[in-house]
Structure prediction request, 361 residues.
Amino acid sequence: MNDISEILNLPPYSLDKSTKRELLDPVFSGLCHHHYAQCEPYRKMMDALGFNTYLQVPYGEIPFLPVRLFKIFDLFSVPREEIVKTLTSSGTTGQAVSKIFLDKTTSANQTRILSRIVGSFIGPRRLPMIIIDSAKKVMDRNHYSARSAGIMGFSMFGTEHCFALNDQMEPDLDGLLPFIEKHKGKPVFVFGFTFLIYQHFIKELIRRNIHLELQEAILFHGGGWKKLARESVSNSAFRKMLQDTCSIDQIHDYYGMAEQTGSLFMECEEGYFHAPVYADMIVRRAHDFSMADFGEKGIVQVLSILPGSYPGHSLLTEDEGVIIGEDDCKCGRLGKYFGITGRLQNAEIRGCSDTYVNGLG
Prediction:
């Protein structure tokens, strides 16, 4: 694999289109060859597709794996004895979950990049932190889920961690109110998963007619939009409820997944997700998987230079999105900026996954 240490030291949104592609093309080609050599299922899939991993091509041309495959196969590219952590995706009861196998280097790089991305929004100092979840629910060491990983990953940016929900997933006002009073008028970092914030925190504050004074807070949230959509709650409505119940104005959604932990696409002040220098995204047309134009809705492909212990560097998600532009967002950050418009119908992504599965025969 190519040495990515210099890239990991770059500020998250510092490269324009041409510089980024010149820098990342050889890295992604190196990852393709590494996974081809070390992961037999990946090798079979590339052979079935007729892709020569010894050739360097623009990273937009390297094959993608449907994320669903991580629910079907154990995919890793390091010896089993080097796997130090197995991350599982969240899923409803009865659903298969993705299994992501991490070695020390991949895990450390994920933490390093998460720190760079988050730090670019909240600053270099750790802040007093409110976690809108229950300590009991997420700190079970016997089940290392994506939810637990998210909490633990973001916790490193905070101090004096205060869990906002009790064991019954209700607002723990006995702990929360003194914490808010202690840090009144000071920046506070708040983190939680979107649907949990809505279901167990916002709705309960509204029901009890409680208003929290968190004017200086910076809130990060992600995940669960499919459930909110079923309740007809939009991003703007979610933000309005947070402002009405907690006086929080600095609110940043993020787009990411367990299969590419660390490579977050953060929402900027203009309301768009941004690709950092360590990752990118492409939108593809559903009928032939060709690249869609800017402004054209299609299936989201995500790429990251971080997955070294498993072949997760180029993935086709089950989400639809649209690229708004590149290098010219009003927020000043370079790179692509985009929106997520919804989830795919199962038939579309299953058809793509079946193509890959058949290649393993």
Observations:
- Residues 111-255 form a domain with the Rossmann fold fold (CATH 3.40.50).
- The first strand starts at residue 65 and ends at 66.
